[in-house]
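Troubleshooting entry. The earlier prediction with IPE gave an output that would not parse, so I re-checked the input for stray whitespace and re-submitted. Clean input:
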Amino acid sequence: MTTPAEKAIAAGLDPNRIPKHIAIIMDGNGRWAKERGLSRLAGHIQGYSTVRTVVEAAVDFGVQALTLYTFSSENWNRPKEEVEGIMRLIAEAARKELDDLMKQGVRLIVSGRLSELPEDVQDSLACDMERTRQNSVMTLNLAVNYGGRREIVDAVQNIAALVAKGELAPEDIDDKVIAENLYTPQLPDPDMLIRTAGELRVSNFLLWQIAYTEIWVTQDLWPDFTRDDFIRAISDYQKRIRKFGKTADQV
Ligand code: IPE
Ligand code: IPE
Ligand code: MG
């Protein structure tokens, strides 16, 4: 059996500097489909196959958490047919992938307002979350019906409720309290944010958590993104100097 460290080395990566948490804005499915004269949904279906590739690679190299931007709170504004197709795809994928998640030891969690999703999507995601909850090789966090501002709004509402009940003093609200009230208090902030398809914006993703995240953008469209591209992204990350406000000499 090859260990993650051995696989990382074989891929030319430093096993001691694998990002613990990688977040990805999986963009470009629509453009990929358009280039081929296909429906936008065909692009999302192809994008699903890239998800499988990247999850496998992340597990291989010992990444501990992978957050995938799957559907944003703004994506409801797309044509009804596309939204319905994406929802169907998420529900189907959740059902189909359960066996592989178990085999890989991947725990599935979801961030976003789940209660607003169609019931079959909620059910299939809830089933995977329940069944995979003991898995500890990697956490796969799907951001579905996710908005970074909404996440902060939801956290503020939780915190305000604690204050109203007298369980928390306003002056005790700090970075830690806010982080603990976000959707995924159990995850560290992402070390690296990958965005495919070239747009230089964050599109309401993880606004709080990416304060010091290393950003890596590729022109490649998500359906074209490969294991080698993922390795290239991590390799570039490993060349960066993370300063967190300090000088280069200090770090
Ligand atoms: C990202 O691909 C997937 C989702 C937003 C669900 P897009 O569908 O945004 O692809 P482009 O940006 O139109 O190419
Ligand atoms: C971000 O992509 C959302 C997901 C990848 C799920 P979008 O395609 O929605 O982002 P914008 O609209 O180009 O900013
Ligand atoms: Mg897009």
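This one parsed fine. Residues 80-104 form the longest helix (25 residues).
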